[in-house]
Amino acid sequence: MKKLLVLGSTGSIGTSTLDIVRGMKDSFSVVGLSANRNAEKLSALSREFTCQSTLTEKDGIAGIERLIEETTPDIVINGIAGSAGLQPSILVLNHGIDLALANKETIVMAAPLVQSLAEKNGCRILPVDSEHSAIFNLTERFGSENIEQIILTASGGPFRQLSKDKLPAVTPADALKHPTWNMGSKITIDSASLANKGLEVIEACCLFHMPPEKIQVVVHPQSLVHSLVRTRDGVLYGQISNPDMKHPILSALCWPDVIPNFIDKFDLFEHTMTFYRPRFEDFPMLQLAYAAAGKKGAYTIAYNAADEIAAEAFLMQKIKFTEIPHITETVLQQDWQREPANLEEILFMHEKAKIAAEHLL
User: Fold this and answer.
1) H-helix or E-strand spanning residue 78
2) CA contacts within 13 A on the Cβ side of 104
3) Is beta strand 125-127 parallel, antiparallel or unpaired with respect to 147-154?
4) Could you say which of 8, 118, 224, 345 would form a disulfide bridge with 340 (CB–CB 3.0 to 4.6 Å)?
5) DSSP letters along 157-218, please?
6) pTM of this prediction?
7) pLDDT reading at 242 higher than 90
8) How do residues 89-109 score in pLDDT, each as one tens digit?
């Protein structure tokens, strides 16, 4: 039985992980839980899973380290949202524990650092994003040397068919109505602006050592094909399943095994699949991410930080939806060529970019 520590247990990733445990009690046990602020729900979960080790956000990084040391998990699921998930990822890898990673900021901000830690300590980073999980599984089976191109699928978000002239008037409530996925507010806003897909382009570059020009984004509203790879012989291979995060989470928890499970199976006869080119000009956050991914230094850190501030400002109704890319682009016009050498410099660059974005507000 594999012992799981779930960070961000009350969020969408944590909830799906605990659903897996409920359905596969002979395979997994929960030894530790953390949550942002929902102490009441955390307490209820600890009782349900007979788990004594829990903490809330106020316990900070030191609390997460104690949680790791107390529980000695076989694998940690990092479902913490935003840049706050970076340091917990580093703690997990420092302890030589496999990391099931849903926190894309860990890679966007600090890929060289966390990848070197994983190699040094003999543990693995197992992607939990549905797109990167698909690419990871396909790449592991074909061999990275045989992959010519990565194709990331995007739902297109709630504004996929909205004309450009109407985008300035959309509200946070409009943006939070994602057509296929049930996610946290920040990632849902990012999905609407295509910033989330931009972050995933950066993440794919880092995880799979691909230049941005070999990563293509295709809009696939049904969210059934979770991503594809093109092999050197020109053939496309994709991963297809219902839009349920339990699939990529279970894949990470079980890797390298493929095991029978309780999750609903995809039925080809019940679905239609369509694919479209992204509207780069109408949703500039995607193109800005490609530009950041193609540069050395701290540009991807600045992209992520500026988007965090701008997306939150939009959620708080301080700016228009179309000002999210304007703020991000203005921050990226500053000089971010310096390559951060360690965690302290990464956090410094992140804070510097956040301050620059806040000044623009």
Assistant:
1) strand 75-78
2) 24
3) unpaired
4) 345
5) -TTTTS-GGGGGG--HHHHT--SS----HHHHHHHHHTHHHHHHHHHHHHHHT--GGGEEEE
6) 0.94
7) yes
8) 999 999 999 999 999 999 999
